Amino acid sequence: MDNRDRALRQMMNSRSFTCDDIAFLRDKARLIRKDIIEMIHNVQSGHPGGSLSAVEIVTSLYFHVMNIDPRNPNWEKRDRFILSKGHTCPVLYAALIERGILSPSHLSTLRKTGSLLQGHPGINTPGVDMPSGSLGNGLAVGIGMALSARMNRQNYRVYVLMGDGECQEGMVWEAAMAAAHHNVDNIIAIVDSNKLQIRGRVEAVLSLGAILDKWRSFGWHTIEIDGNDMEQVLQAFEAAAGIGKPVVIIANTIKGKGISFMEGDPEWHGKAPNDEQTAQAIRELGLEAM
Amino acid sequence: MTLATRIAFGQELIDIARTNKNFIVCSTDTKNCGIDNFGQLFPNREYCFGIAEQNLVGSASGFAACGHKVIVTAFATFISMRSCEQVRSYICYPNLNVTIVGTHAGLQDGGDGATHQAIEDVAIMRSFPNMTIIQPSDEVSARAAARSAIDFAGPLYVRLHRDSVRNIHEADDYCFRIGHADILRDYGNDLAIIGTGILMEKVLDAADMLKEVGIKCRVIEVHTIKPLDVVTIVRAARETGAIVTVEDHNIIGGLGSAVAEVISENLPTILRRIGVKDTFGESGDPESLFTKFGMSTNHIVEAAKEVVLLKRPEAWEG
What we know:
The structure holds 2 protein chains of 2 kinds. Chain A is an alpha/beta fold. Chain A has a single domain, classed as Rossmann fold (3-Layer(aba) Sandwich). Chain A contains 11 helices and 7 strands. A 5-stranded parallel sheet of chain A has the order 1-2-3-7-6, sandwiched between helices. In chain A, strands 4-5 form a two-stranded antiparallel ribbon. In chain A, helix 1 (3-13) crosses helix 10 (230-240), helix 2 crosses helix 4 and helix 2 (19-43) crosses helix 5 (89-98). Chain A is globular. Chain B is α/β, with parallel strands linked by helices. Helices cover 41% and strands 19% of the residues of chain B. Chain B is built from 13 helices and 12 strands. Chain B has helices at 5-19, 38-41, 53-65, 76-82, 84-92, 121-126, 139-151, 200-212, 230-240, 255-266, 286-292, 297-310, 313-317, and strands at 23-27, 46-48, 69-75, 98-103, 132-134, 156-159, 182-186, 191-195, 217-221, 224-226, 242-250, 270-276. Chain B has a 7-stranded mixed sheet, with helices on both faces. Chain B has a 5-stranded mixed sheet with strand order 7-9-8-11-12, sandwiched between helices. In chain B, helix 10 (255-266) links the parallel strand 11 (242-250) and strand 12 (270-276). At the A-B interface, helix 6 and helix 7 of A face helix 3 and helix 5 of B.
């Protein structure tokens, strides 16, 4: 029985979510996809592909998994979230808006002068726990936050969302080593494995090799899922709790997920849709444009 | 025998930690400032992250973001360059309460050679918004700097040194105030010598040698390189009209550059900069390196004579 089977069995025994939860989260995910498209269309700049691939992960965290207080985003005992793949911040901003932490009025300000919605997560945005955007840094920051919880006898968890291309950064593996060494058992890393980076396939740019084996050999518990399947995402987060060592969820996803003409096309890593494409995207989501 | 600034600073940290439980240490695999036993003395207050400076600084940022005061210790070369971006984007940008202790700075690192002699750390750290930079000059000021660092809130870079130098300050009446330059000698207004770090002892020796030949200078110690004490420096420029800066660092980007910026904008003044002249260091006994690289007491004396000569209008004509 491999890790995944073990994790799945564990999930089946004690589920903390219902079919209604999944339906609710899928609706939220559609809204978040729409926000992402409209945000990037509005400013004609940003990164839709990797934002869309991570929608199920971020939606489930903000609406089901994480212990947060939307009225008090700096609550000391909150679960922390670090979007290490910071260029995909539209998905984070959309989640903060849909969760009521940020006002929807910010949607049209992305990347504009004076905006709370910086092109990569900044320092003044309510609900953003740490700047990010320079790839490879989030896991290290997460370790500090997770160890702080241990020192202060708090039981929050730290979630770090990374890209698969991001795992090419050496610092990711410094942090992976440190997390296992210090027995950090309240950190959950998620690799949004959408298989693409700006120049094309991750395999072609710089192969990650046996990525699951790498994480395991660094002392991490691994869970592999379809990261665009809301049920599997929820099951994975449930299984990741209480493992007693650092956990990484390898979430196999589709870059540009949910918008037919963006799916699997590296062109949409950092390109904004035009008016026509935006209208089509909103139609495909089964929603009305704002 | 006095203690090197790095050891004095570390010992003081341990002493402070006995009564102040509000800071932790994040360290590497070095014995760079004599606090390798911090974790044994104070369980759960030291985290070693091995030979991995990027993760070290990133993790320190995470701790600080959760409200901890964090002391990070490493060699100045590695902390300023191997983890340069982490200091910038994850300490300075979010303006976190992290003190970065960089040791073995400058040519005084001696035998270790060019790879280990940090001659650009101040230039790098000085260009980061929110960063404050301090550098003690002896055991007394290093101990005082440790207390100031613990009381300080925000990103702070502390530049420390491998070898001991003689004490130029008296422990009893010494006060280390971040942001304030100290006038150590006020022999007269022929020129001002503005120095920082372990070369201050040479600055004082040079001031005495100059006095013997009738040149009376003001000696200013800048232990806070950023923010610079603009008032004290501009006043010295106005009252003396000639300045020599002295530092164990590249003359590009360090104290010499900082003083040049301030006087150029306020009161253009004749200036000579003693320091590493945009070249890499090499292995050797520190004193022989200072002589070879133009940073000895005699070099300070000669630079002082030069600026005094230059500030007289008639000197320009000849």
